[in-house]
Design brief:
Blueprint lengths: L6 E2 L28 H19 L9 H31 L4 H20 L3 H6 L3 H10 L7 H9 L7 H14 L1 H12 L5 E3 L5 E3 L2 H10 L3 H17 L1 H21 L5 H7 L5 H12 L3 H14 L22 H11 L5 H12 L3 E4 L9 E4 L5 E7 L3 H23 L9 H21 L4 H37 L6 H16 L17 H5 L5 H19 L2 H13 L6 H8 L6 H30 L7
Parallel strand pairs: 4-6
Antiparallel strand pairs: 1-5, 2-3, 5-6
Helix pairs in contact: 1-2, 1-3, 2-3, 3-7, 8-11, 9-10, 11-19, 13-25, 14-25, 15-16, 15-17, 15-18, 17-18, 18-19, 18-22, 19-20, 19-22, 19-25, 22-23, 22-25, 23-24
């Protein structure tokens, strides 16, 4: 189901921690969903019976507005109950993906959802058989139907892509298979993954989990250690390259099947249709970014110079240019996030505080836990956030990021009926990246340490390179990959490797060494397998939040804040481009994209100036050398 999308944004991972040793304070409290498995099973049975009830309305929609209202309200009941029935096992499974009994319950729910889709396949064709003007007359004259106006109008907009009942039923039945490559990817990359060990220069042995890999790249000053970690990490994907390629080929073939089934010209346009986003937005984003790679390459040339390296690799690109071994406890991180969102008002800040105090977050890594971080908005309860907190500055920003998603869900659910409460992915990353920008300003404004300020500026720069440039590169990769399938061309490991290395050449030029193992990067990107055509939206959302942040800082803050909070409260009540335009953001204008490129250029220049002043101060002894 569409609402099952997780806002999953990072790629850190699990370690050797025994979950039983972690205090309950730092674990999810799932009791607000269900008190236990008996209550869950009862709800599952209720959901099953309501699906049967929904089917009983078949061939009755022409009875008028009252019947249509009953069907829509029943659909809402199904949806609200389904959130709880799905997430109760899914959240538990994600804390330990070795538990097959929990996985079995999750799969049972997914099988029920496939039956649900099949049982409701009649609805769209039957409604569309009724003239639109007649249905809208029902909406005007039937109390309670107004809140369904937008989703019903969207159904009519999609009329040319809706099949007859038989066709819809067949596509619904295929849903139980469409998630198979994604499930296989998760099993291969998490449950069945055996992470290698390396010996560091110090003599310590480290198991290179995704979280440890990021930690080594971010914190370890020895290039040789970073090289060993890099080779161990990517060696895992190299060994399974053909399996990963087969899975990604299946993803693209699945998307092309759905595209052709519903009569869209391309997979990209099929993906964009539901949000009514013009294809030109993606094409402009990629083209404008490719024309604006100079600041990215300038940054990496500076890094090579500052790090005094003969050869500079991409695995050198995350290390802080100063020692930067400061740890941020989880408590400190929470306080920073709470304080940073003060510009968004008392209510927003109070709900952030509530999230930290009420066990909405599963905080630390443990063995078997799903990697990364996400926010899952459980309608009727509250959002649940998964973290793998490891005391780094990156983790502090990840916490702020996921809290942005959670607050978006809260404000949307509180201000929209269920029918229009689900905001689209296209606007999802605006709230998360704006939270990050607020956190950065808070930390910079409260830091008098020149070294910490440089570290924060570096984080800002690498936030732009990672959230904007890297995601555009990823978007270009999956667009080309899907186009190869559309053209009937092969998508083997060799093809994917060459495609990815060509993009590295384009974006990084001669600023980095072309290590052969980087050609396997595509194999480890979860979004390629979990949510195709997602990643470009990081870049468009970053451009949107950057524009809003600039307006918040430029004056007339109250008016800008009102527009922004209205965006969050609007959920899915209109097309995302319209909602963004109402908030003051125009993504159809290439200048909005170019502004991010200019922003990076300015930050790189600022960092260079502050670095030079810092080094000069060290020479005359006014800054202590660590």
């Amino acid at each position: 189901m569409k609402w099952m999308t997780l806002f999953s944004d990072t790629d850190n991972g699990q370690n050797e921690l025994d979950r039983s040793t972690i205090d309950d304070t730092f674990k999810w409290d799932l009791a607000p969903i269900f008190a236990g498995w008996a209550e869950w099973e009862s709800a599952f049975n209720t959901l099953e019976s309501k699906i049967e009830l929904f089917q009983s309305y078949k061939d009755k929609l022409n009875q008028g507005g009252k019947t249509l209202l009953e069907v829509q309200e029943l659909s809402d009941e199904l949806g609200m109950l389904a959130y709880k029935v799905y997430y109760y096992p899914a959240l538990q499974y994600d804390t330990d993906q070795r538990k097959n009994d929990i996985l079995a319950k999750k799969q049972t729910v997914q099988n029920l959802f496939a039956r649900w889709q099949a049982a409701t396949a009649w609805f769209a064709p039957e409604l569309l058989s009724i003239p639109q003007d007649e249905v809208f007359q029902w909406i005007d004259s039937t109390p309670g139907l107004e809140k369904y106006r937008f989703p019903i109008s969207e159904l009519y907009r999609s009329q040319e892509h809706v099949l007859d009942e038989k066709g819809e039923r067949l596509l619904a039945l295929s849903a139980r298979f469409s998630g198979s490559p994604t499930e296989a990817y998760s099993a291969l990359s998490t449950a069945d993954m055996i992470y290698p060990e390396i010996t560091l220069i110090s003599g310590d042995t480290v198991r290179v989990t995704p979280g440890k890999y990021r930690s080594i790249l971010n914190l370890n000053p020895e290039q040789e250690d970073r090289r060993r970690a890099f080779e161990a990490h990517y060696g895992v994907f190299e060994k399974s390259k053909n399996t990963y390629a087969a899975l990604y080929n299946s993803i693209c073939q699945r998307d092309w099947f759905k595209t052709q089934s519903r009569n869209y010209p391309t997979t990209l346009e099929a993906s964009l249709f539901s949000d009514n986003v013009p294809r030109s937005v993606v094409d402009t984003l990629i083209a404008t970014t490719k024309d604006g790679i100079d600041p990215l390459q300038k940054w990496h040339r500076l890094r090579k110079e500052y790090m005094n390296l003969d050869k500079y690799h991409l695995y050198d690109g995350s290390l802080a240019l100063l020692k930067g071994d400061k740890k941020y406890s989880y408590e400190e991180a929470c306080n920073h996030v709470i304080e940073s969102v003060a510009p968004l008002g008392d209510y927003y800040q109070s709900r952030v505080r509530e999230a930290f105090e009420s066990r909405w977050i599963d905080v630390f890594e443990n063995e078997g836990k799903r990697s990364g971080a996400y926010s899952a908005g459980v309608y009727g309860v509250h959002p649940y956030m998964l973290m793998n907190y490891n005391d780094t500055l990156d983790d502090v920003f990840t916490l702020a990021h996921e809290m942005g998603h959670s607050m978006h869900s809260i404000l949307s659910n509180e201000n929209q009926p269920f029918a229009t409460s689900e905001y689209t992915i296209f606007v999802a990353e605006v709230a998360s990246t704006l939270n990050e920008a607020l956190l950065m300003e808070h930390l910079l404004n409260n830091s008098t340490d020149p070294e910490e300020r440089l570290l924060l500026l570096q984080h800002t720069i690498e936030g732009i390179t990672g959230t904007f440039y890297t995601q555009v590169m990823f978007a270009d990769f999956e667009l080309i990959g899907h186009q190869l399938i559309e053209q009937g061309l092969p998508l083997t490991a060799e093809v994917l490797n060459e495609l990815y290395m060509n993009l590295i050449d384009k974006f990084y030029g001669d600023t980095v060494e072309k290590d052969d193992l980087y050609r396997y990067t595509w194999a480890r990107i979860p979004h390629f397998y979990h949510s195709p055509y997602y990643v470009y939206q990081y870049a468009t959302c970053y451009a949107s939040s950057s524009h809003l942040m600039s307006e918040l800082q430029a004056g007339n803050r109250e008016a800008v804040l009102e527009r922004y909070l209205t965006l969050l409260k609007s959920g899915g009540s209109d097309h995302p481009m319209t909602l963004l335009n109402n908030a003051g953001v125009d993504l159809s204008d290439s200048a909005t994209i170019q502004a991010v490129i200019t922003k990076l250029d300015n930050y790189v220049d600022r960092f260079e100036e502050e670095w030079d002043r810092y080094q000069a101060a060290k020479l005359i002894g006014t800054v202590s050398k660590k």
